[in-house]
Amino acid sequence: MNQFVFKSTAKTFLISFMILGILCMGLTWFSDDAIHSRFWTNLLHNSVFFTGISLMATFFIAVCITAYAGWHTQFKRVWEAFGSFIYVGIGLMVFIGIATYLHMNHLYHWTDEADVAKDAILKGKAGFLNKNWYLFGTIIIGGTWAFFYNRLRALSKAEDDNGAGVNFAMHRKMRVYAAIFLPIVGFTSAAMVWLWIMSLDAHWYSTMFAWYTGASWFVTMIALTILILLYLKGNGYYDNVSQEHIHDIGKFLFAFSIFWTYLWFSQFMLIWYANIGEETIYFRERYDKYPILFFGNLMINFLIPFFVLLRNDTKRKFGSVGFVAGVVLIGHWLDFFLMIKPGALHTAHAALGHEDHGHAEEAAHGAHEGAHGVADAVAHGAHGASEFVSGFTLPGFLEIGTFLGFLALFLFVTLNSLSKASLVPKNDPYLGESLNHHV
Known about the structure:
globular
């Protein structure tokens, strides 16, 4: 079968989980604190996570086109379907941007103009960390990503609709768009990562953070590719996607789990060893107050994929590769949770302190002082995050339900897009290479 049918039973199943996600978001809003910090961080967490997966799928399509690669051609429509979520994801990020612009949330400390005026570090970053850049940068850059995805997808479908036989003309056009897109996504994704995630800890910075986040997105995209292919094969599709293809995707899962670990190590150990105070505080906070997530992150996202996939034949076993892919999907969702929640919790405490007028002095001078920011940040961290905070210290049932709702939304958009074109691009010039792929 070369045409995926998105059955009503599958739609109902996914819609039910989307409703669960909406209910969890509603419960989070009504059971949250005065500024709804848990709601907004859950929305940001899942929106960034799945938008990044979509972006990495489009990025990898462009990489393969530019590299004259053909091994993936049979199932490249899966990555195209992943990319279709970019419209939904950017829409969600624009919504968060509008809420940030209108001061409807307290996700980012740099949106507090009074605190920025008293903070030399934030004042120095104000040219980039401001609500205009956040909103309009998201619209412009996100729109650019969506434009290139749209062109690559349209040209790919046009190959099928342009009669019988190989069509090099369409593929040459795709190669031009892919070559233009790659440097654009390289620079702009870093800028968006800095705005969306790194600026939650506004005093902290890392030259490797964009690489780290991109690697997390990419390995999650590979994990979801494996899970979707196994689902499709189990339902009678993609008969020609063999152990050889799964083996190659498994190698990507294995290799980029190691690459992600290298970046994790580079940020944590080298910054710590160099005793760079303004950078170490990020890890000190997570090391001291989020030890389960901090060390669990390394175990789930490195040790499990490393030891399970280390043997070459394991990458050919659908059950083993599928198990690791599921673990990695959950593990990197937790990775983003750990990136986002601690910094947002500090901002929430500061904002609530301002509202109560009782902790205003502490919020201004605790985590956001100039030259002595590190010591004060430690003190403020001990005050603000030393006790268990539901939805921040560890994911709760509402976070898990929200994740399942977003995952269902992502899969619904993916499977709906997958049904709009043939599963195998019959006129792609590299299809023969993919059909005869052997490692």
